[in-house]
Amino acid sequence: MKIKELVKKLEEVGWYYSYQRGSHMYFKHKDKPNKVPVPNHKGDIPKGTLNAILKQAGIK
Question: Does the keyword Chloroplast apply (predicted)?
């Protein structure tokens, strides 16, 4: 999955861009206290990293 696809998926379920530090974007949700870091690198996100991000976001 590409970064743009993941960002779109996060935004569809209520996550919004908060800030960027280095090569990682951080997303927040109005109903959840945690932040979800998303690496902003070229190419596809590795499967394990993608699964961890989706789990932190409560999507998977």
Answer: no
